[in-house]
Specification:
The chain is of the alpha/beta class. 43% of the residues lie in helices and 15% in strands. It has 15 helices and eleven strands. Helix 2 packs parallel to helix 3 (48-61) and helix 3 (48-61) runs parallel beside helix 4 (77-87). The longest helix has 14 residues, at 48-61. It is globular, with a radius of gyration of 18 Å.
């Protein structure tokens, strides 16, 4: 299955792996790229040289195109972006901010730049500033989120810009992929599903928590601070809720989350760790190789379309 996204970044399937901090390591990125998608290394809050090491490691594991996600709210963002420009992965994905000031240098280095956005206004601005595509991420996604649902956000952005649009948030299987393409998307971004892949090096407890998740388990904290995050409910999210309802300061609320994702990813702490995951977690039932996960998003499309036709008769 080909689309403008495939042509843009040189991949077989129109799927980008989400840039999940800690989770999206060189191992996961390489496996996704080897499986025909676009693997992404997440810089998160890591220093620039750590990101450089991850890029070099990914190159040892794959000859296919891959990218780096740069979290613009990181104190190391400028240094990380410089490393990306020097190392020249195929793509840079940006999140949590406006990458406008970096776009000219990134493009001059021959790197495609694809910002993650959550509004029509930002999509238009990114196109005007020279972005090659945008990821329209709905509030169903895990981690840092916006307010508009994928179903409503994607078609509005497709209508507003001419560059490729990648749909993200809540896409757990081929049915979600079909819905995204029906909304006009040129590809999909998948995050939560790849947590439960063989190649993801997240702690087994984290993977098990995703598999056990029910429909109402992916909750949002941090709305009062202006930086909402979606994660699986546990002791940490309940403490967030308590602090927010009691009128705690922004600093106190933010301090609670320090180190939370590391605890979940590396230590398997499912109570005080931040188990970032989207609402699609409830649809994840097993752990598989990345290549099989990617194919599962596309091999069942004909059957789904035939089922739609039958229902419309």
């Amino acid at each position: 299955m080909k689309s403008r996204l495939c042509d843009l970044v040189g991949i077989e399937y129109p799927v980008i792996q989400g840039g999940m901090a800690w989770v999206a390591t060189a191992e996961l990125a390489a496996a996704v790229s080897n499986g025909g998608g676009l693997g992404i290394i997440a810089a998160g809050g890591a220093p620039a040289e750590v990101v450089r090491e991850q890029i070099k490691k990914c190159r040892e594991l794959t000859e296919k195109p891959f990218g780096v996600n740069v979290m613009l709210m990181s104190p190391f963002a400028a240094d990380v972006m410089q490393v990306v420009i020097e190392e020249k992965p195929a793509v840079v994905i940006t999140g949590a901010g406006n990458p406008g000031k970096y776009i000219p240098a990134v493009k001059e280095a021959g790197i495609k730049i694809i910002p993650v956005i959550a509004s029509v206004a930002m999509a238009k601005k990114m196109e005007k500033d020279g972005a090659d595509a945008v990821v329209a991420e709905g509030t169903e996604a895990g981690g840092h989120i916006g307010e508009i649902t994928t179903m409503c956000l994607v078609p509005q952005i497709v209508d507003a810009v001419s560059i490729p649009v990648v749909a993200a948030g809540g896409i757990a299987d081929a049915r979600g992929a079909v819905a995204a393409f029906a909304l006009g998307a040129d590809g999909i971004q998948v995050g939560t599903r790849f947590i439960c892949s063989d190649e993801c090096i997240a702690h087994q407890n984290y993977k098990d928590a995703v598999i056990k998740a029910k429909d109402r388990d992916a909750v949002v904290t941090g709305r009062s601070t202006g930086a909402p995050v979606r994660a699986l409910k546990n002791k940490l999210t309940r403490e967030y809720a308590r602090l927010e309802s009691s009128g705690a300061s922004k600093e106190e609320i933010e301090q609670l989350g320090v180190g939370g994702l590391r605890r979940a990813f590396a230590e398997g702490d499912v109570q005080t760790g931040s188990l970032m995951a989207g609402q699609s977690a409830a649809m994840v039932k097993n752990i598989e190789p990345c290549a099989d996960i990617i194919r599962s998003y596309f091999e069942g499309i004909d059957d789904i379309l035939n089922g739609i036709r039958e229902k419309m008769i």
